[in-house]
Specification:
- This protein has 3 domains: 136 residues, no CATH class; 119 residues, NAD(P)-binding Rossmann-like Domain (Rossmann fold), CATH 3.40.50.720; 141 residues, no CATH class.
- It is built from 12 helices and 11 strands.
- It is 50% helix and 13% strand.
- Strand 2, helix 6 and strand 3 form a beta-alpha-beta unit.
- Helix 1 packs across helix 2, helix 1 runs antiparallel to helix 4 and helix 3 crosses helix 9.
- The protein is an alpha/beta fold.
- The strands form 4 sheets. Strands 3-2-1-4-5 form a 5-stranded parallel sheet, covered by helices on one side. A two-stranded antiparallel sheet has the order 6-7.
- InterPro entries: Bact_transf (IPR003362), EPS_sugar_tfrase (IPR017475), NAD(P)-bd_dom_sf (IPR036291), Undecaprenyl-P_gluc_Ptfrase (IPR017473).
- It holds the Pfam family Bac_transf.
- Its EC number is 2.7.8.31.
- It is found in: Membrane.
Length: 413
Amino acid sequence: MQVAIDRQAAGLKPHLSLVSLFEALLDPIAFSGSLLAVAALHGLAGDPAYVVLAVTVFLLAQPFPMRIDSGLRALYRGAWVKALIVFSGLALLGLATGYGNAYDSRVLLGWFVFGPLVAGLLRHAAHALTPLVMARAGYFRHAVVVGASPAGLAVADRIERSRCTGKRLLGFFDDRQPERHARVGIDCLGRIRELADFARSHPVDVIYIALPMSSQPRILQLLDDLRDTTASIYFVPDLFMTDLIQARMDDLGGVPVVAVCETPFTGINAVVKQAFDFVAAAVILTLISPLMVAIAIAVKATSPGPVLFRQHRYGLDGERILVYKFRSMTVCENGDRITQVQANDRRVTPLGAFLRRTSLDELPQFINVLQGRMSIVGPRPHAVAHNETYRKLIKGYMIRHKVRPGITGWAQV
């Protein structure tokens, strides 16, 4: 029995490495392969120009690998987001090199539709088949959780619900009273001091320590007791109890730190998002420019005052930015006190009411996106006066300014 377990553990690590490799390569293969397939349908099979383009697509699709254990909706949505990122990258390269016109627009359009569908279907297949393959081959690791804390329960729930982690939960080790264990719904294998003996006499491959930060002496003693076992040991920070649920690990010159409040868009993420915003805003402004000219003429002709309404709002990191909108009212308030628009507000012009109802007054904000002050998707910016009011009433309100404000926010989506 022990020999079989040892063999299983020996074969597990390469298998999980192959799963990680598959996660990293599935999207690049799907997008580059679908591009070559669409090119072949247009009689361009083997064309060196499209082979080079396919290699470029392969490289652009490599960052942000998929997670097989994600939900199906997230997998399909991720395929379309990846397509937008890759397409934006190609557009930037085309503008920079001047080779954008060298490719058939029918091929590119067909690939933009076909590629995400292929990637989504392959993601779906991988999501369904990977757990079956792992179960049939017997690839899994036995795991235990130390501490029935909220963090420990979250780890246990993740192991139980996800079929692609390659782990099976044996149970908890906790010092609580037995009646409290029943509420957890998972077997309690013993008290924490009994874990080391259990790990030496049972096939325990992974140990997750989910004790509160105040239990440092017990944690250090536990680590010392586990030194003569072969189990992999992970420490689960008690972020749930300290309101750090959105924190993430980082490093400062090799020193591990926890980012408690930081923008999610750093490094390559920031470059990709800003590049996408710039390209998308430029394309959208080109397409809607006739409509914007017509609205500008209508605003000027129907009421006195400027065409654009300019108002200071908070942007990234709380910096004041000037946001543009088509003027929809007879006043242009931009001070410390601003009167909120009410139903049937007489300050709103007839044309302004239509623009506000259809959100057409927001179109000039694509100029803000080109300026780098806003993003296409992000928290909606509020007037400075309203912002100062909300930050006093809503705990953590200013965290929204760790990203650029957006034309469209979650409420609109």
